[in-house]
Design brief:
This protein is α/β, with parallel strands linked by helices and 396 residues long. It has helices at residues 22-29, 32-43, 58-67, 106-126, 161-173, 217-224, 270-284, 350-359, 367-377; strands at residues 52-53, 70-76, 88-95, 131-133, 176-185, 191-199, 205-210, 235-238, 243-246, 251-253, 257-261, 287-291, 294-303, 312-319, 323-325, 341-348.
């Protein structure tokens, strides 16, 4: 059974029967040959084989032991091609909890998160990560649920202290960093945005993406009280490692890698999130990196969630479990449900084209038909076509 840092079993509500991930629960309780088959069904096969693990440097594993964060590493392969060499990019995901109570001074809260992330970023850098991705609003508690405006004080300009904090790591480790922050646009009336800042490997700011949020209705209403909802946009940016596309919805896309900033705080949503990410990878022939924060964040003042239940001071447990899906429907095991974590993954981007060719979704998509149907649907006078059986109401 998985143990916490102090040697006690993890039997809290955030665990699964005392384990910090489904993978660990199954591995410890099934016979090896049974676990191998169950794991094949759950995580799939990459190029016909179980997903390969990567041995990370001792410096990275030592940091994970010293600071108590989960660290895992895997390699997605592609079939060998005649005309193209393998195009392998090493991507890292960080999931983390807040560092000190939400009742602390805002300055102290942000600094504490910075200090908490330093060793995890160092572990990513020493592991040779090319592109490092942080979770949504990583530099603050996820306070949107409270609907209190005072949390807007965490918002900062694109070139604010969070970006400056990460720029030195990008330069030090020759690493591109995707940093989702709560942005205050000083030049345009101090509007607040949910923004991902793309920091280049030279420490420069390559660009930003202001996110469109498609979430459940309640969460959308809560988040609209803080930041502006952007209309659809697609922007391509070139980094040293990959052409990076920032696109609509709750994600950043590196053309062949999709970074999805998920919110997973309710148990009934957990199966849905796993299905959504893998379906996106399959349907679009790219890698999907799904990141979720960890822990239960308790706020000073109780609030309601529109579900008829009494007011409460937390939004529920954020159960981590970040993972990566590939276009061949395989995926990594997830990170811990209750600990900070770093997931390192080598991705051969050749797999993306190989599965575009194999499944041919784009060749048979008939986008022009969807465009025509959608154009009709958005018109005020639209009526759905319903063909009724003329004998439906006739007695037999």
């Amino acid at each position: 059974m998985e143990k916490s840092q102090n040697g006690e079993h993890n039997d809290d509500a955030s665990s699964i029967c005392g384990y910090d991930s489904l993978h660990h629960l199954l591995k410890d309780n099934l016979k090896p040959h049974h676990f191998q088959e169950v794991n094949r069904l759950l995580t799939g096969l990459n190029c016909g084989k179980a997903l390969e693990t990567i041995a990370l440097p001792d410096s990275a594993t030592a940091l994970s032991v010293e600071h108590g964060f989960d660290i895992q590493a895997f390699h997605f392969h592609a079939d060998k091609e005649v005309l193209r060499e393998p195009r392998v990019v090493r991507v890292g995901l960080i999931q983390n909890s807040i560092a000190i109570p939400t009742t602390s001074h805002f300055v102290d809260q942000k600094k504490a998160i910075f200090e908490k992330l330093k060793p995890i970023i160092d572990a990513a850098g020493s592991s040779g990560v090319n592109i490092l991705c942080l979770q949504e609003a990583w530099m603050m508690p996820f306070a949107f649920c409270t609907r209190e405006k005072r949390w807007c004080e965490f918002a900062e300009p694109v070139d604010g202290e969070s970006t400056k904090f990460l720029q030195s790591f990008a330069l030090k480790y020759n690493m591109v960093i995707i940093s989702p922050i709560l942005e205050r646009d000083i030049n345009h009336g101090e509007v607040i945005w949910n923004t991902a800042v793309v920091i280049g490997n030279h420490g420069n700011i390559i660009g930003i993406h202001r996110k469109v949020t498609f979430l459940n209705f309640l969460l959308l209403l809560l988040m609209q009280k803080y930041f502006f909802q952007l209309s659809n946009e697609h922007t391509f940016r070139r980094t040293i490692y990959q052409e990076l596309e920032t696109s609509m919805r709750a994600h950043i896309m590196l053309k062949e890698i999709l970074v999805t900033l998920y919110l997973k705080q309710h148990l009934e949503r957990l199966p849905l999130i796993y299905v959504m990410a893998r379906n996106a990878a399959i349907a679009n022939s790219y890698y999907v990196a799904s990141i979720n924060r960890v822990g239960t964040e308790t706020f000073p003042n109780p609030f309601t969630s529109g579900d008829g239940k009494p007011a409460h001071a937390d939004f529920g447990h954020f159960y981590g479990s970040s993972y990566i899906s590939a276009p061949d429907a395989s995926c990594t095991p997830s990170l811990s449900r209750n600990r900070d974590g770093l997931l390192v993954t080598d991705m051969d981007l050749n797999l993306c084209r190989q599965y575009k060719d194999k499944w041919g979704f784009r060749m048979t998509a008939r986008y022009e038909l969807y465009a025509e149907t959608l154009a009709q649907y958005v018109k005020p006078e639209f009526e759905p076509q319903v063909i009724r059986d003329p004998l439906l109401h006739k007695r037999s």
